[in-house]
Amino acid sequence: MPDTVLAALSGDPVGVPGALGTREGADDELQRLYARFLQCWHHPRWVRWRKEAKEDLEFYSGVNQWTERQREKLVAQERAALTINEIRPIIQIVVGYEQSARLDFRPIPIGEEDLENVTVFGRVMQKAAKDRNIEFVLSDGFERGVVCGLAVWYVGVDYSTDVVHGTPFIQLTKPGEVLWDPDSIEYDLLDATDLFWTKMVPVKTLQAYYPDHADEIAAAVDMLPPESPLGGIGASPRDPADAYRSESADPVPLYDSAHETLRVIEAWQQCWEPVRLLVDQSRNTVDPIPEGALPLAQELVRVDPDVKIVTQHRRYYRMCVFLPGTGIKLESGTPFDNDDEAYPFVPFFCYFEGDEILGVVRNLKDMQREVNKRRSAIVDNAARHGNFKWFAQRSALENPEFLENAPGAGDVGWVRPGQPPPVEIGPRPLPEWLWKLDQVAKQEMKESSLVNAPSQGQASSAESGVAIAQLKQQTQLGMAGLFRNYRRARLSLGRRFGYRVQQTYSAERIVRLDTQAGQTEFVTVNEQSVDERGRMTVLRDIPSLKWDAEIVDSPATPSARVAHFVMLMELISKLPADFGVAVADLIAEFSDLPNRDEIVQRFRMVQQKVMPPLAPGGPPPGWLPP
Fold first, then answer.
1. Are strands 356-358 and 351-353 parallel, antiparallel or unpaired?
2. How many whole angstroms separate alpha carbon 421 and alpha carbon 119?
């Protein structure tokens, strides 16, 4: 199973608003957490975003672009209510940019001694990501973030298949399931004092996942009324602690008797712990004081004036999973020992402006409504005035029912002698301004989203190649902020996922890794060996590795790398031979050579030794050939 019950489940919350009152004797911590959860849930920022995000997703899918009231009114009037979805192609272009030129994450060593280990570690990360289809999970999250403004991934460990070591994974949470401190303004949530992940879970699943609490859960559920006023432990609809009133139009169901589901809240809290340091100014050293050694450090400070004790505070995060409807605490603590300094959730904000979280769809909805109304009006006009009509004098036909019943093939109309035959009159053309307004609305959507016609492959033959290239560049520049935010989220995801890999690959084991040349090989990680002096060493040590992270600027997809590799080789072929040393690492970066990362690192080490350091103001004289 994953590390928590919410990570194991991904179903939709079902049921009607729950009905639970205050539970006597509920834990004070749970009362405080639930009151804080209600404050976040009913905060205007989150209420507004849930409403807008739901509508954004519906507009993207083409569903409910007309309100129910509008549709019923038009149907009653026998008028058209068409949906011409112009938003979906725009979003698919933006998503296509990410999928065709996906950026790659990789670990980098802190020192040269970590080069071999970090290379193996990077390959292990690639294997773990491939095993859990992380590439598709990230693309789905990017698409959702572009549509409704926010996507949140959870990075955890799944023990349902490998109960001994666990498997690292990344899960895309459903919109609205994760919310946090509404006063937070940082993209990485470091200033958020708390975070909540919530959903409705079947009672039987909870009992199976938490067998130690199975009887307690069953007894508590038996005491729950099927319907009662909305509330929960420590917070009723009229509790002053609930600043935004739970009886709002966006209620929180706690228990659904029809489906036998309970709401589970996984609360993460920001905590602080003091860390005492021993600072020696004469030797310029700073060392943490071990637990129990404080009296000795104080004595050292008393006798040595150059030594002093400094207290700092370390930030860490702890979890508490509980049932707000019954007041039962299911588990608490930190499931990630090597990564407790950040939330295990990574958000991707498409745009975060002030108090608004919005995606590309948000500002296109009004124009989409106009397109639907204009096109429906065109269809209505064509239906009412676009039919052919017959004009004839009275008594001109011996069988007038010939025209009344819409003549078909083989029908004959008998014209009386001396009378003019009936005349068929065609429909009048629709007003030109009606078509222009429809086209203007579509063009405004492209201009507002910056996904113009050339970016969609719809360039006019009258436009020059330079103009088309500039328009495509305009689209790329317009989306630079969006991809900058995604790059930030991707880097944070890579770090969290790397720590999960270190946690799960902590024992000696043999794994099959790709060689980046379409082949695989077996590699033993954390291999223990004894040298000639009897000292124990660990080869390819994953858990103890010190590493940092970076996003590779080169696209990760093979087709894009090959195209850039060919362009670079063609450019180098036209330059002097000495220039190849300066770009050897770039050539290897775009290639698909086996052990590419190790080759790149070695090229860079050689460059540092061969290439003179750059002088202020430009390269050293004589390095580049004249």
1. antiparallel
2. 91
